[in-house]
Amino acid sequence: QLQLQESGPGLVKPSETLSLNCNVSGGSISSRSYYWGWIRQPPGKGLEWIGYMYYSGSAYYNPSLKSRVTTSVDTSKNQFSLKLSSVTAADTAVYYCARRPEAAGYGMDVWGQGTTVTVSS
Amino acid sequence: SYDLTQPPSVSVSPGQTASITCSGDKLGNRYACWYQQKPGQSPVLVIYQDTKRPSGIPERFSGSNSGNTATLTISGTQAMDEADYYCQAWDSSTVVFGGGTKLTVL
Question: According to the model, what pLDDT value does residue B93 have?
Answer without folding.
Answer: 85
